[in-house]
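thread from #wetlab-drylab

HS: before we spend reagent money on co-crystallization trials with pyridoxal-5'-phosphate, can we at least see a predicted complex? here's what I'd submit
DV: go for it
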Amino acid sequence: MHYFQYKNDTLFCEDVPVSTVAEEVGTPFYLYSAATLTRHFAAFDLAFAGIPHLTCFAVKSCANIAILRLFANLGGGADIVSGGELFRAGAAGVDPKKIVYSGVGKTAEEIGAALKAGILMLNVESEQELAVIQKVAAGLGLKAPISFRVNPDVDPKTHAYISTGLAKNKFGIPIGEALRVYLAARELPNITIKGVSCHIGSQLTKVSPFVESLGKLKGFIAELAGQGIAITHLDLGGGLGIRYNDEEPPEPDEYARAINKELADLDCTLILEPGRVLVGNAGVLVTRVLYTKAGLKKFIIVDAGMNDLARPSLYDAFHLIQAVERHGLEREVADVVGPICETGDFLARDRPMPKVAAGDLLAVMSAGAYGFSMSSNYNSRPRVAEVLVHGEGFHLIRDRETNDILIQGEIIPEFLVS
Ligand SMILES: *Cc1c(COP(=O)(O)O)cnc(C)c1O
């Protein structure tokens, strides 16, 4: 459920006409609904109310500090994957005790910053990383709280680029080797073992892969207990899918029911790292039609491109595209393309589209997750503005970049200056 709805053929975000925001901030821009974000967080978090748990929003899915603050105000923590995200979480006011840090390539500097901040735990992805954590923690005179990210070898049945829990993927430690690694970690003076974690992939539309990996992790936690290693935190990662088109992902409470059932006899705090399911349908990308071209194919050329929303080019992902002002139900098949000099620069291909003309506004739906956060400056395009609607009001939460920002930090060396 989200709060982007038509009233008399005009698309609103909560109580604000999308066109009003476009007039004020120009196009393209990302538009988020605070009521939707709040509703999604509550639906997800309350589904686990019966058990000790912590919902750590996956920052990489939508990293704006206003959004991070919104979730922090609701009691949420953060799942981070870089020192930059640690910095963002700090700037947003996320409680460090609610931060978990995942990722295969953490540097010594990033590890040091996370330890100094006092985060809940580092989800360690290799033995070499563990050695670096030990060394950094010793240097700081601290004990590093850790879990290992265990790779359960479960097929999440999603896009290959976002499958992470298969034996062939780069993530985590194979479950068959995990016991040896935990036993080794126990011997390290500056390491405190806290948890077991996993994250098997993104945009999962079935509960069964989650249940399958949870089953494997439970067995493993029992094995650790047998060795005298007590686990206090079980981190199940993120990955719950959303509806972009005709997918039928489980609702959060169906997902939670399945997990709660498995957890009944386990004495652990459950950590969840949802990203997409909280923000995906809480944001849209608003773009303006620049030109239309009719020939062998019909093209609708808009002012947003693959640098602003990479998912269609990167994953061949589907995003519904709607007219901000609806005129009738007539459709014609078209490609919706951006201004970038790549054939891969499309937002939709061979799509039945409403009839539009230059100047019309379009809303690319379900763009809240992996939208702005994956955007780039390719083709020297300033990154777009982000706006948060709250009831009848709307707030700029990120300025549109200027040309000055495009060349910020660039230097012409002396030898080129004549
Ligand atoms: C990307 C990621 C998430 C969030 O995934 P969603 O599919 O957006 O819920 C959670 N945990 C880790 C470790 C991730 O890499």
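DV: Residues 58, 60-61, 79, 81, 102, 199, 202, 237-240, 273-277, 369 surround pyridoxal-5'-phosphate (CB under 6 Å).
HS: ok that's useful, forwarding to the group
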